[in-house]
Amino acid sequence: MRRAIGAAAVVACLAGAVQAAEVGGVRLDDGASVGGQALVLNGAGVRTRMLLFKDYVASLYLPAKARSYPAVVSKGPRRIRLDLLRGYSGGDLADLLVAGLRDNASAEEFASMKPQADQLAVIVRSIGQAKPGDVVMLDFHGGATRIAHNGEPKGAIAGDAFNHALTRIWIGAKPAQDGLRKALLGL
Fold first, then answer.
1. Which stretches does DSSP call E strand in the chain?
2. Which of 29, 32, 93, 136 has its CA 20 to 30 A from that of 62?
3. Greatest CA separation found in the chain?
């Protein structure tokens, strides 16, 4: 009887350890796989505007936990997942991402990645109308950022420097929202 109770306690503990996180009403997996590598949920948070409007839940997946931008981009494959809480046109979402790139880069750096920023805009616009509950994934592996909408690949953009700039939208010096930055970094 003691063994059965002990075994049940171990199973209960293990089940709790693999439960998904819930942020902003969105259930997130504790792990993911990108480029064949297992990743762990580093952190997640809700992007809000004017303290009232909830835009999306952003989550960051890495091979190992990291608490700073340099540590995040030094890791291998990574994923930034956006679970939309409101609808976006592909054009609006593209404009937000390109503005985030511009806000987190010097004028020279943004000019040097303008072709990739234009490619990002074309890919994201191809999403069309995104609805609440849709998921946009930005996976980085093999030297390219791969963009998917609801699991459907939309395109890829080559370059480590571009991905580093894209990652700064959420965890750089001028993030989309400071509280979201802290949540993604688990601070």
1. 21-23, 26-28, 31-34, 37-49, 53-62, 78-84, 88-89, 129-130, 135-141, 144-149, 152-158
2. 93
3. 70
Q: The domain 20-184: what is its CATH number? A: 3.50.70.10
Percent of the chain with pLDDT over 70: 88
> Tokens 């959420």 label which residue?
170
Give 20's DSSP letter: P
Q: Where are the domains of the chain?
A: 20-184
The structure tokens listed for 26 are 């969105």
What digits encode the pLDDT tens for the residues 152-175? 999 999 999 999 999 999 999 889
Q: Is the pTM of this model over 0.85?
A: yes
Calpha distance 94→78 (Å, rounded): 20
The answer for residues whose C-beta is within 8 angstroms of residue 24's C-beta and 6 or more apart is 45, 46, 54, 57, 83, 85
Type of residue numbered 177: Q
